[in-house]
Amino acid sequence: MSSSIIASFVAAEQQMYIYAGITLLVFGLVGNLLNTIVFLSLQTFRQSSCAFYLTIMSMVNIVQLITGLLSRIMISGFNIDWTQISLFYCKFRTFLYEIAALISLACICLATIDQYFATCTRPRWQQWSNIKLAQRLLILTIFLIIIEQIPTLIYYVQIESSTPGEFICTITNVNFIQFNIYCNYLILGNIIPYLILFSFGLMAYRNVQQLAHRAVPLVRRELDKQLTVMVLVQLISAFFTLLPDFIVYMIDAYANIQDPVIKAKVDLLYRVIICVYYTYFAVSFIITQIIFC
User: Which of 80, 83, 147, 160 could be disulfide-bonded to 90 (CB atoms 3.0-4.6 Å)?
Assistant: First the structure.
C-alpha cells in the first residue's frame, strides 16, 4: 500500500516539473531577457547604479534558471540526469548554479542599499549612489563569491549508487557538507540577504514616501519611485519564494522522519517548494511589466 502511495507521489512530482517547471522556465528566460534589453537600451537606466544591479541580476538569473531549473526538469520530469553521465557537468553545474544564485541575491541586496542612499535627504549620502562605485562593488562581490565557491569544484564527486553502473553526484566530505549548509545556505543564502533586504528596503520605502515633499526634479523623483518599486517587488518575491524553501529543507534534512509515507510526502512537498523557489529567479518578468506601465 505504501509503495503505491509513494509511486503516486513520484508521478505527481514528474507531472509538476513537466508542466509547471517548463512554463516557469520559459517565462523566466523571456522575462529576464526582456529586462536586460530594456535596461541596456534606455539611457535613463544605463546611468542608474540601481538599474545596473538589476541588469546584472537579470543576466545571472538566466544562468540560474538554465543550470538549476532546466536540470531539475530533466531529472524529475524526464529521468535524465546529466550529472550521472559527466563528472565535469556534476561539478560545474553546481558551481555555476551556486554562483548565479549568490550573485543574484547580492545584486538585489546592493540595489536595495543603493536605493536607500539615492533617496536619502543628505546630499553626502546620495553620493554613495553612483554607477562607478556600483561597478567596483559588484566586481569585488563576484570575485569573492567565485573564490568562496571554489571548494564546490573539489568536493562534488560521482559515487556509484546501489544500482550497478549508475552514479550519483554528491558531496562525500562531511566538513564541506556542514560548511555548505551553514555558510552557503543558511548565512549567505538566507540570513544576510533577508536582513539587508528588509532593513534597507523599509528605509528606502520611507524615503520614497517623503520625495513628494522635497525639491527634487520630477524626472529624478519618478525614476527613484520606479526603481524602488522594482526593488520592493523583488523583496516581497524573496520572502514568499525563498523562505519556504529554507523551512522545508531544514525539516527534510533534520526531522529524521522514519515513516516512508510521511517521508515521501515531505520529499514531494520539498520538490514543490523547489519549483516555487525558482519563481524568484523567473519573477523578473513582472518588473518588465512595471517598466512598461
Answer: 83
- Cα(41)–Cα(51) distance, integer angstroms: 12
Question: What's the half-sphere exposure (Cβ side, CA atoms, 13 Å) at 293?
Answer: 9
CATH number of the domain at 62, please. 1.20.1070.10
Nearest to 286, CA basis, from 229, 208, 213: 229
Structural domain count, the chain:
1
pTM: 0.87
Place of cell 540570513: 191
Cell of 233: 517587488
Residues 6 or more apart whose CB falls under 8 angstroms from that of 207 comprise 116, 119, 120, 121
| Neighbour tally for 78: CB within 10 Å | 11
Domain that holds residue 255: 2-292
Q: Mind listing the pLDDT tens digit for each residue in 72-112? A: 899 888 888 888 888 899 999 999 999 999 999 999 899 88
CA atoms in the 13 A half-sphere facing the CB of 169: 21
Residue with cell 505504501: 2
Q: 122: which 3 cell numbers?
A: 543628505
